[in-house]
Write a structure and sequence with these properties.
alpha/beta; 10 helices; globular; single chain; four-stranded mixed beta sheet; UDP-N-acetylmuramoyl-L-alanine:D-glutamate ligase; 13 strands; 317 residues
Length: 317
């Protein structure tokens, strides 16, 4: 399982422009009908945080293969450091087959036995975690015990005031009730969608209830700073500091929704760090996610106006 440097991974780090936001978990190629795109929710999150003015870092693992080399090149082309990416000498780089329905909604087939299942928390990664202001993680990368333990170690290395965002991201059957509950115990912020909320309520043994009430109960049960619920065309809800605010959905000409949720999470994180009002946080998160929905792929270039929104705040340079 050991790390190898059989091909070059120099870890070029661009100039940091804001708080360190780590995407912790899977990096992979999404095999879309129109061609492959870099994917994995943590990798997408790190890109979008970077695109909004933060220092984004992906912590993951790739194979010693051509797709892995291509991922390093893709990260560099996006202005992201590759210093958090380890290279596995045996396991291949991860891939996910993606199909899109008539509304641009994706269905994923996630292939097992890949490099990010063997993610390691080495000394350099733990040093980065010790200065992180945000770490985003989910359930998928915890499907293997090796990666699950590494994710726990990285989270434990973060500062006490770090935003540890659990983007629950339930995929196929690559999750368990135990993983969900342990992750919530380690998180300070939860992000989920309206299909995942009833699953979480069932895991907790709670009866169905109003969405607002469930978010409040989850926040209280796990002492969370914030809980965000995305609801597709119905918009989203944000519970933060004892109040729940909502934002309506917008009519869009959707190209695809891949990566939109991750861009929403990045804007949510930077809004929370900046101390913005809940309604302002939610509105900006929707503007960013709506934009991504109207572009192909998970990592389109972002308008300068989005970066300007955070410039001059604690998230800006």
């Amino acid at each position: 399982m050991g790390f190898t440097t059989a091909f070059t991974n120099p870890g070029r780090s661009p100039r940091a422009t804001g708080p360190l936001c780590i995407g912790l978990g899977e990096i992979l190629w999404d095999l879309l009908p129109g061609g492959r795109q870099m994917g994995g929710a943590p990798a997408n999150f790190a890109y979008h945080a970077h695109a909004l003015g933060a220092e984004g870092l992906v912590v993951s693992r790739i194979g010693q293969d051509a797709p892995g080399r291509d991922l390093l090149e893709r990260l560099s082309s996006l202005g992201l450091s590759t210093s958090g990416i380890a290279v596995d000498p045996v396991a291949p780089t991860g891939t996910v087959s993606v199909t899109l329905d008539s509304r641009g909604q994706p269905t994923f087939t996630i292939h097992p036995g890949v490099a990010w299942d063997l993610l390691e928390a080495g000394p350099d990664v733990l040093r980065q975690a010790a200065r992180a202001e945000v770490v985003c993680f989910g359930t998928l990368a915890q499907r293997d015990p090796v990666a699950r333990e590494s994710i726990r170690r990285v989270l434990a290395a973060t500062p006490p005031d770090c935003l540890r965002i659990f983007d629950i991201n339930l995929r196929q059957r690559f999750w368990s009730s135990e993983t969900i509950l342990e992750s919530l115990d380690r998180a300070t912020v939860l992000k989920l969608n309206d299909e995942e909320l009833p699953v979480l309520a069932e895991v907790l043994g709670w009866p169905s209830d109003r969405e607002e009430r469930l978010l409040e109960r989850i926040a209280e049960r796990f002492r969370l700073r914030a809980v965000a619920l995305t609801r597709g065309s119905r918009g989203s809800l944000l519970w933060v500091e004892g109040c729940c605010v909502s934002w309506p959905g917008s009519p869009l000409q959707v190209v695809d929704t891949v990566g939109a949720g991750d861009s929403y999470t990045a804007a949510l994180a930077l809004g929370l760090l900046a101390g913005h009002a809940p309604g302002e946080i939610l509105g900006m998160a929707h503007r960013v996610a709506d934009f991504v929905c109207t572009r192909a792929g998970a990592t389109p270039p972002m308008p300068e106006a989005f970066r300007a929104h955070f410039r001059g705040s604690p998230t800006g340079g």
